[in-house]
Amino acid sequence: MAARMQRDFCHGLVCSDPISGCTDGRPAHPGVRTRVDCRHGREVGGDGGRSSASCSRHCREAKGNAGFWLFLGQLVTTFGIALSNFLLFFTLAWAAVRRRRLFFAAGDEERRRRRLLLYPLAAYALCFVLSAAFSYDPATSLSELSQLYSALTLPLALLLVQGERQVRLVVDAVIATTVVLAIYGLAQFAFTDHGPLHQRIPGPFSHYMTFSGVLLLGLALIAGRVASGHGWRRQVNWVALTVVGMALVLTLTRSAWLGAFAVATAAFALQRRRVLVGYAAALVLAVISLAAVAPTLWPTYWQRATSMVDVRNPSNYDRLCMLWAGGQMIADRPLVGIGPAMVREWYPVYRHPTAVRARVKHLHNTFVHMAASRGVLSLLCYLWLTGAATALTLAAYRREGGRAGPRGDLHLGVLFALLALNVAGLFEANWRDTEIQRWVLFLLALPACLPATNPRAA
Length: 458
Hints:
By secondary structure, the chain is an all-alpha fold. 64% of the residues lie in helices and 2% in strands. It has 3 domains: 2-62, no CATH class; 66-101, no CATH class; 108-309 and 362-449, no CATH class. The protein has helices at residues 2-7, 52-62, 66-76, 81-97, 108-133, 138-142, 148-151, 153-160, 164-191, 208-227, 235-250, 254-269, 273-297, 299-306, 314-332, 343-350, 366-374, 376-399, 408-424, 434-449; strands at 9-10, 35-37, 42-45. It is globular.
């Protein structure tokens, strides 16, 4: 029946598609049943032909087009950023050439949800441009506007990823990519000189911090599956979680560890009270056990973990000095900041006299770094964007039945990923990494890519 509906006709009050979950968004008159021949784009019977063109277009796009596959390709190849940029360019070019055949929004609700994301993104881009124009060195800062190229990931996702099936396909690909990257990192640890603190495993990326940030996002998506409905019963989810978790631990990246801990706590908080109590008890027991054996068996990892709360640690103290310097930058130029790419150049002027390092590339805090380099307005736009995506996801999560709902894994994956990103961002400027940013931009768009209809009601 579903195949017949997709192949021949779109039946009912609205055009529906079993693959993408799409709807035409413009219901027929009450009591009138519309029947549209999607092969020829003409109405067989109903309300006078209002929905035939959009139905035909929607059914063509539901199967997945070249633009969708190009978009998917640029997401899963971020480990080779040149290739990802190449595919993103062709994705943009395809969308521009085929603009008349693309179906951007079905109805008022879809347009409203997409506007909630596009407005803060546009404001963020505008603040970026203003910050570069009023920078301490506009010529240098304007060259950083190339970073806005990655911001196209979000509107392209809204344009090209249509319906639940395509969303799940992209999420599956991102998770599979994360697992492959984790296995690559484990192989680096086992068969190369990578592993010690001075030579941490970077995976296929140029820096271990980027590697840990990508693993953290994938871990959050897998955790969303484990925490939802019956996902915890699927062994493949636990295998993926274990592989990615092991690689994340071996990166020795404390900010990513804290992000993963926040995700684990949130996942257990969603369970029944007795499960949460068990989690707390297991956590206390694990800490006691590790305190007894870890200093001897895994001294590097134990020292790395306990150093998080040691203010006397040179790295920790230096980061406090960076926050102080960032505060001075914000105080000098609160609205537009000192300019993109200016933190590295001007840090010696603003640094605390007792700071460990004379120069740094960034301030090791997403929020402070963004406010210092691009101004408080840019930070507010970033918070607006992430807050809007969080609100949309939470609304859909509650409307569709919570973690037991049919899309509970997708909604939890987005929420966990944003939680992990921002918790880790308190100790690392991870939003700067293009590889991380592109995955996050897709996840921000995800709630608006899903149909607005409740699959339970359907």
